UniProtKB/TrEMBL annotation:
The keyword Cell membrane applies. This is Large-conductance mechanosensitive channel. Homopentamer. The chain crosses the membrane at residues 25-46, 72-97. The gene is mscL. The lineage of its organism: Bacteria, Bacillati, Bacillota, Clostridia, Eubacteriales. One of its GO terms (cellular component) is plasma membrane. It comes from the Bacteria. It is found in: Cell membrane. It holds the Pfam family MscL.
């Protein structure tokens, strides 16, 4: 019985190792770590640069604003601060991601050449419609077209 349990535990850890070492799990782990570091950068940008810059123009701290209902104060100001901080962080993320995406922008693929609408008459070298059966300049019958009976 003990040998069977040891084999079961070994199999369990082998399955766990196979799961943990799969590519998408490792990619996700790297993404979480980089996301944490990126969060610190964005928070520093917002808290150390943008919020003080806004504070130069007006007081953006609404934490003291509230509604008093009896002995209870409902902190609407803290909620307003949270909304303002969310909007600032969302805007900063938008600008940063837009900038990063523009750096990685692939060059536009050249458009396929348009179908020609004209050709050159082999007899007089005039430019004529690609659908022409006869050249309007020299009246030569062009090759490759059956006689048209009207």
């Amino acid at each position: 019985m003990a040998e069977k349990e040891v084999k079961g535990i070994k199999k369990f850890f082998e399955e766990f190792k196979a799961f943990a070492m799969r590519g998408n799990v490792l990619d996700m782990a790297v993404g979480v770590v980089i996301g944490g570091a990126f969060t610190a950068i964005v928070n520093s940008l917002v808290n150390d640069i943008i919020n003080p810059s806004i504070g130069l123009f007006f007081n953006a701290d609404f934490s003291e604003v509230g509604i008093h209902v009896g002995d209870v104060m409902i902190g609407i100001g803290s909620f307003i601060n949270a909304i303002i901080n969310f909007l600032i962080v969302a805007f900063v993320l938008f600008v940063v991601i837009k900038t990063i995406n523009s750096l990685h922008k692939k060059p536009a693929e050249p458009e396929a050449p348009a179908e020609p609408t004209t050709k050159v008459c082999p007899y007089c070298q005039s430019e004529i419609s690609i659908k022409a059966v006869r050249c309007p300049h020299c009246t030569s019958k062009l090759e490759g077209f059956p006689e048209i009976n009207n």
